[in-house]
Amino acid sequence: MEIRKLTDRSLILSVLRKDEDIQYYSLGDLDDFFWPLTTWYALGSGNEIYSIGMLYSGSAIPTLLLFCKGDTYPSMQLLKRIRPELPGKFYAHLTPPLINVFGKDEILENYGLHYKMVMKELGEDASDPQIERLKLSDIDRILKLYSVAYPSNWFDRRMLETRKYFGYFIGSDLVGISGIHVFSPEYRVAALGNIAVNPDYRGKGIAYKLTVRLCNDLSKDADIIGLNVSTVNDHAIRCYRKAGFEITGEYDECLIGLK
Question: Cβ distance 227 to 74 under 8 Å?
Fold first, then answer.
């Protein structure tokens, strides 16, 4: 088996499609919007590819995605062999137990086990006049909400250009938001993200309403709609299950500093 750097999007697509219910982030990163910021690694032999991973360099700290089903041995070998090429510091999303490739002193932060969830049944969007599609001009209100409701949130304001962000308003105040981390009409895939509700308004079903509205809008352009959520975030998991999502996999999320 040999390590390859892949640059053929059609080949990468054919591999990712086999496990699209855990590879939705990587599928979305094939889009022209993200593609120039990606590096793709594969372990293969001849025409067969046994494992594939991607390093995304579009943020201040790069992120490595490496997911698999069943036998983890090929992915473990891939990770071990690309390790010398990885940056000194990066975020990692890894199917268990791939995190064990790194020593305890190299795991700078461990954000715990996360679920991958995919929408299996589209919830009915009950019209609510307090939900509005957000625009670039709403950026100040959006940042203010995140500072209160989700200060650790990773938000790329460029994603507002997709028009796939929705806000819940009480009067003129933005108190809830739903959006995306990945969206590609070309590859018919989306990954939800940046979902937050002001603490003063939680427990009123706002997150559920925003999630359903967003998913109904995304369903016009995407066949696969996924999201990632911490396994200890029971409230969010219940909300997403109610909205039609099912758990399709698990992964460890951490910050790595190589020695």
Answer: no
- Do 89 and 164 fall within a single domain? no
108 and 135: one domain?
no
Report pLDDT for 47: 84
- Nearest CA to 182 out of 194, 173, 174 is that of 194
108 shares a domain with 142: no
Determine how many CB atoms are found less than 10 A away from the CB of residue 233. Answer: 14
In CATH, what number is assigned to the domain containing residue 178?
Answer: 3.40.630.30
> What pLDDT digit, counting tens, does each position of 175-214 carry?
999 999 999 999 999 999 999 999 999 999 999 999 999 9
Give SS3 for 96.
coil
Residue 94: both structure tokens together: 């890894």
Per residue, the 3-state secondary structure of 98-120, as one string, reads HHHHCCHHHEEEEEEEEEEEEEC
Q: Do 77 and 137 fall within a single domain? A: no
What is the domain range of residue 84? 2-115+253-257
Q: pLDDT tens digits, residue range 38-84?
A: 999 999 998 899 999 999 998 899 999 999 999 999 999 999 999 99
Q: Are 63 and 87 in contact (CB under 8 A)?
A: no
Same domain, 75 and 153: no
Contact 207, 239 (CB under 8 A): yes
Of 63, 13, 8, 15, the closest CA to residue 181 belongs to 63
3-state SS class at 13: helix
Stated as kind and residue range, the H or E segment containing 14 is helix 9-16
Rounded to two decimals, the pTM is 0.93
pLDDT digits (tens, 9 = 90+) for 99-133: 999 999 999 999 999 999 999 999 888 789 999 99
